[in-house]
Amino acid sequence: MFLEPQTRGFQNHCVPWRRCQGEEEVCDAVNMWEETMPQTSVVFSSILGPSCSGQGQPSMGERGGGASGSGDLIFQDGRLISGSLEALMEHLVPTVDYYPDRTYIFTFLLSSRVFIPPHDLLARVGQICLEQRQQLEAVSEKAKLKSFSAKIVQLLKEWTEAFPYDFQDEKAMVELKAITHRVTQCDEENGTVKKAIAQMTQSLLLSLAARSQLQELREKLRSPAMDKGPILKAKPPAAQKDILGVCCDPLVLAQQLTHIELERVSSIHPEDLMQIVSHMDSRDKHRCRGDLTKTYSLEAYDNWFNCLSMLVATEVCRVVKKKHRTRMLEFFIDVARECFNIGNFNSMMAIISGMNLSPVARLKKTWSKVKTAKFDVLEHHMDPSSNFCNYRTALQGATQRSQMANSSREKIVIPVFNLFVKDIYFLHKIHTNHLPNGHINFKKFWEISRQIHEFMTWTQVECPFEKDKKIQSYLLTAPIYSEEALFIASFESEGPENHMEKDSWKTLRTTLLNRA
Which residue numbers delimit the Ras-GEF domain (predicted)? Predict the structure, then answer.
């Protein structure tokens, strides 16, 4: 027996990201989404284009050289759109007269892991640096050598700050030490470069230590207890606490949900999201990469969505009296509306999904007493037709509000995570990594990087609401019913109405009695 959403006008299309990765489902999904591929947000168009490199690029279609003049990069309207991996790597490395734009550094470091492990990329960067250093030493250009060394340190600093987890690999740390050792030899007089390297290394080690401790802590935390309920009587004692006994203000609960969302989403890093691309490439090539296991943050955030949906269903189904169930449904509708007003679309979608699970949606007598006008508005916003057009319009409005915000409350944007992941996933599946000439399709990775950059900007917003430990403790630790317990509670509240429900109820009772 599975928890399927009922057809109450809204259908839950937000399956968790890991469930859309089956080979057959991928083919069907790509065909379904190809014509409705979400358009990339233009929020960062002023940052990422058209002059992405910031270096006065060649005109449309003209070949342009990398930093070392490899002549294997293609620009269009001043924007880098393709190149060989080697040329793109050379374009990353500074020279005496050139330093790559920060947006290019971020985009290439993010996307390069699809083609080459970070430690191998670092090794190649080290080789290019060594070649340039030897050229400068050959002509005794000490001043230029110092300038070049400072730029290399700056590049490494940006790398370690943007993607510190790349250096958790021992191989990467070995390469980093090798490069910095060569660079410090050019700065023996005043030690300026050496000081910068020491500060960079210290910051990197602190970041790695903090992230390691956070991961250990999260691994110790368990998901909310799954309450399977009594064998045949799933109803709780009348005195058992429910969400309304902890918080009866929809706005306050929406604010606490926003707290939890921002705390959990802040643990997601750009390279975690890029693994959606790397994961599918490794599956397509029938091989596995060592970094595929580092998806804990994605899975944990996805599990939070599912737990919140199940908690909503549990809170409704466990109520004995129809009048109180009606009140519970109306309360969650108000909470979802407050989440929408805040900009917390992920919690709003989880709540709606919970109310559309079969055990809740089938409670027709209860729903007949609910004032559903507000719920209908929420479902309209989450209507999956036209690739969730209504939701995307609302998200764009929240994004614009965030950009012009005068207060921290107006800066909050928490997108529906499952939809965001699907956007990245299908953008990757629809557009190839390589062009017919063998070049990397860098135009595709500009778009993926733009969306990930925008998402990361949203995750960095500090929650302006006061934290209520009591409410958050309940939301995170309250027992949630299993699928079977939800159906038991639902059927006990309102008996089966048709042959299919009667058969399901009979089968469920028999299964549970035999299990006892």
Answer: 249-496
Put the strands of the sheet holding 79-83 in their side by side order.
Answer: 63-64, 73-76, 79-83, 440-441
| Exposure b/e, 433-470, CB count within 10 A at least 16 = b | bebeeebbbbbbbbbbbbbbbbbbbbbebebbbeebee
Contacts 24+ apart (CB under 8 A), 229-232: 229/481, 229/482, 229/484, 229/485, 229/488, 229/489, 231/512, 231/513, 231/515, 231/516, 232/488, 232/509, 232/512, 232/513
Task: Encode the chain (516 residues) as per-residue pLDDT tens digits.
Answer: 445 444 444 444 443 333 333 334 434 443 443 333 333 333 333 333 333 333 333 332 333 444 333 458 999 988 999 999 999 999 999 999 999 999 999 999 999 999 999 999 999 999 999 998 888 888 777 888 888 999 999 999 999 999 999 998 899 999 999 999 888 876 665 578 888 999 999 999 998 888 777 666 666 554 555 555 544 444 545 456 899 999 999 999 999 999 999 999 988 999 999 887 766 555 444 333 444 445 678 888 989 999 999 999 999 999 999 999 999 999 999 999 999 999 999 999 999 999 999 999 999 999 999 998 999 999 999 999 999 999 999 999 999 999 999 888 999 999 999 999 999 988 998 999 999 999 999 999 999 999 999 999 999 999 999 999 999 999 999 999 999 899 999 999 999 989 999 998 888 888 877 775
- Supply the Cα-derived Rg of the chain in whole angstroms: 27
Residue 288: how many other CB atoms lie within 10 Å: 11
Owner of token pair 């050229």? 135
Number of other residues whose CB lies within 10 A of the CB of residue 267:
17
Q: Pick the closest to residue 258 from 451, 463, 439 (CA basis).
A: 463
Whole-angstrom distance, CA of residue 13 vs CA of residue 165: 33
Could you tell me if 279 and 428 are in contact, meaning their C-beta atoms sit under 8 angstroms apart? Answer: no
Q: Please report which helix (H) or strand (E) contains residue 55, including its range.
A: none
Strand 480-481 and strand 226-227: pairing? parallel
User: What's the CA gap between 382 and 386, in Å, rounded?
Assistant: 11
Residue holding tokens 């799933």?
Answer: 234
What per-residue string of b and e applies to 139-176 under the rule 16 or more CB within 10 Å gives b? eeeeebbbbbbbbbbebbbbbbebbbbbbbbeebbebb
Rounded Cα gap, residues 209 and 164, in angstroms: 10
Tokens of 468: 């209520």
Reduced to 3 states, what is the DSSP secondary structure of residue 371? Answer: coil
Residue 349 neighbours by CB under 8 Å, 6+ apart? 14, 305, 382, 416, 418
CA pair distance 112, 115, nearest whole angstrom: 5
Closest CA to 314 of 368, 355, 256, 258: 355
User: What Cα–Cα distance (Å) separates residue 433 from each residue in 15, 446, 449?
Assistant: 26, 12, 14
